[in-house]
Write a structure and sequence with these properties.
The chain is elongated and about 65 Å long. By secondary structure, it is α/β, with parallel strands linked by helices. Helix 3 packs across helix 6. It contains 10 helices and 12 strands. The strands form 2 sheets. A 7-stranded parallel sheet has the order 8-7-6-9-10-11-12, with helices on one face. A 5-stranded parallel sheet has the order 2-1-3-4-5, sandwiched between helices. It has 2 domains: about 110 residues, Rossmann fold, CATH 3.40.50; about 190 residues, NAD(P)-binding Rossmann-like Domain (Rossmann fold, 3-Layer(aba) Sandwich), CATH 3.40.50.720.
Length: about 325
């Protein structure tokens, strides 16, 4: 079996395969010929022999160079990275490990906003020496608040799992039914998208962990933003297509929302003239909510385990 790997990144170190990680692949996949490519040219040169490829991106036109290719794997969670025709005969698998990392980012945003940390930093940078009065009117407890997670899949469930011990009441919204999670508290529940409008006025924190499919386009529009109470904060770590960004910026400017934490946007990078850049009480992150030094280690844990499971063998210890 020939495995070709091209995992490089210009700016984020943890998204680039290290020599140690490449050696781990060779060590834990005995009998597999592993080729690690440093750039696109090397990948294209190795592609004709590849049966499995691990990549960040793959152009459908490259299929003509890959007569033996049967599987594409990517560490990415988003299903919008590969656009292959159904007739290609290539199975595509995605990383499933992102949830815990992304949930930590969301929880950090929630705490930083509710507990006045972001506002304190903003006022510090403006030169305010002791903004006690300003912060005293804004700070809220996380305990006892209501968290609505729109998109209660693997990532959304991790958000709820980490928020639960803080005494947050959780409502997850998802399209399909699921068993009640064992970590749910008595007041937590799973709701349907049809119940969203009724839930928004009760939300202290609204987290979006939605995929970028057409069914989520503009889901949080101006009308739904107006259903949220002024104390509410909005967070998005799914895909940027789900939020009307102009309407969100207006809600923040007009004081109809307490704040927002955004990691994804309709167009990335976010334009310099985006109204979100001028909106108050908004934290903007450059699509990095899952970044961590062990990012690719977690991916390799999954990939190697899946490889051995597909081969009918148990995963040997590292």
């Amino acid at each position: 079996m020939k495995l070709t790997v091209w995992l490089t990144h210009r700016s984020v170190p943890c998204w680039q395969l290290t020599p140690e990680q490449a050696a781990r692949l060779e060590r834990e996949l005995p009998g597999v010929a592993v080729t690690c490519c440093a750039d696109e040219a090397a990948f294209l040169a190795a592609l004709p022999a590849a049966e499995v490829a691990v990549v960040w991106r793959f152009d459908a036109a490259w299929l003509a160079r890959a007569p033996r290719l049967r599987r594409l794997a990517t560490p990415a969670a988003g299903r919008d990275y590969f656009q292959l025709p159904p007739t290609a005969g290539v199975a595509v698998s995605y990383g499933r490990f992102h949830g815990e990392l992304m949930a930590e980012t969301v929880l950090g945003m929630m705490l930083a906003g509710a507990r006045g940390i972001l506002e304190a930093q903003r006022r510090q940078l403006q030169g305010e020496a002791w903004p006690r009065a300003a912060l005293g009117g804004q700070m809220r407890p996380l305990r006892g608040s209501h968290l609505v997670v729109l998109g209660f899949g693997a990532i959304g469930q991790w958000v709820g799992r980490l928020a639960g011990p803080f005494g947050v009441r959780i409502t997850g919204i998802r399209r399909s039914a699921m068993p009640r999670p064992e970590w749910f508290a008595a007041e937590d529940r799973v709701a349907t998208p049809e119940q969203l409008d009724a839930l928004l006025p009760t939300a202290d924190h609204l987290v979006l962990t939605l995929p970028g499919d057409t069914g989520t386009d503009g889901l949080l529009d101006e009308r739904r933003l107006r259903l949220l109470p002024p104390r509410a904060r909005v967070y998005n770590v799914g895909r940027g297509n789900a939020i009307d960004e102009a309407a969100l910026a207006a809600a923040l400017r007009e004081g109809r929302l307490a704040g927002a934490g955004l990691d994804v946007f309709q167009t990335e990078p976010l334009a310099a003239d985006s109204p979100l850049r001028r909106a108050p009480n908004v934290l903007l992150m450059p699509h990095v909510s899952a970044v961590a030094p062990n990012y690719l280690d977690l991916f390799l844990d999954e990939f190697i385990a899946d490889w051995h499971a597909a081969s009918g063998r148990s995963h040997p210890p590292p």
